[in-house]
């Protein structure tokens, strides 16, 4: 009886690619775990500390309402638009005009990367939204 020889097994992916894919997946999981979803009261206190109560005629309730309907108080919220632009962060600030997105190049009036708007520290988001409400349309912009 003859011994049967089997052809060598082919790997689906070279070992380096497998590790790279695994590392990418883990980094996505860790990055998404950094998101912060504020409670209404936590956000109201934070926005008050930034001096938004009464800024440009909008009271604290207006700012909290904006954040709730824009992102559900989620600092890591990103909405992708069909044209490649994104709406980013707790106030859903658009990359079309206000921040730098890697997919599109726009005016970047707030002088920051859109990913800066996804931080748990609200400073960049608040400074940018303060510029936005200075537009003639105000908060409706």
From TrEMBL:
Residues 110-128 form the Glycosyl hydrolases family 22 (GH22) domain. Its main location: membrane. It is a single-pass type II membrane protein. CDD domains: LYZ_C (cd16897). Pfam families: Lys (PF00062). PROSITE patterns: GLYCOSYL_HYDROL_F22_1 (PS00128), GLYCOSYL_HYDROL_F22_2 (PS51348), PROKAR_LIPOPROTEIN (PS51257). GO terms for molecular function: lysozyme activity. The keyword Metal-binding does not apply. It is found in: Cytoplasmic vesicle, Secretory vesicle, Acrosome membrane. The keyword Disulfide bond applies. Keywords: Disulfide bond, Signal. Residues 1-35 form the signal peptide. One of its GO terms (biological process) is fusion of sperm to egg plasma membrane involved in single fertilization. GO terms for cellular component: acrosomal membrane; sperm flagellum. Gene3D superfamilies: 1.10.530.10. It comes from the Eukaryota. Interacts with ASTL. Belongs to the glycosyl hydrolase 22 family. Sperm surface membrane protein that may be involved in sperm-egg plasma membrane adhesion and fusion during fertilization. It could be a potential receptor for the egg oligosaccharide residue N-acetylglucosamine, which is present in the extracellular matrix over the egg plasma membrane. The processed form has no detectable bacteriolytic activity in vitro. This is Sperm acrosome membrane-associated protein 3. It comes from Neotoma lepida (Desert woodrat).
């Amino acid at each position: 009886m003859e011994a049967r020889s089997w052809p060598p097994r082919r790997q689906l992916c070279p070992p380096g690619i497998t590790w790279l894919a695994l590392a990418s997946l883990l980094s996505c999981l860790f990055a998404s775990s950094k998101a912060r979803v504020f409670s209404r009261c936590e956000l109201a206190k934070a926005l008050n500390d930034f001096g938004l109560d009464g800024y440009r005629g909008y009271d604290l309730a207006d700012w909290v309402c904006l954040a709730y309907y824009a992102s559900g108080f989620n600092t890591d919220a990103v909405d992708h638009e069909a044209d490649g632009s994104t709406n980013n962060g707790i106030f859903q600030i658009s990359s079309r005009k206000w921040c730098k997105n890697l997919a599109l190049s726009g005016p970047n009036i707030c002088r920051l990367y859109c990913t800066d708007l996804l931080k748990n520290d609200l400073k960049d988001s608040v400074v940018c939204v303060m510029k936005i409400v200075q537009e003639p349309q105000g908060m409706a912009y």
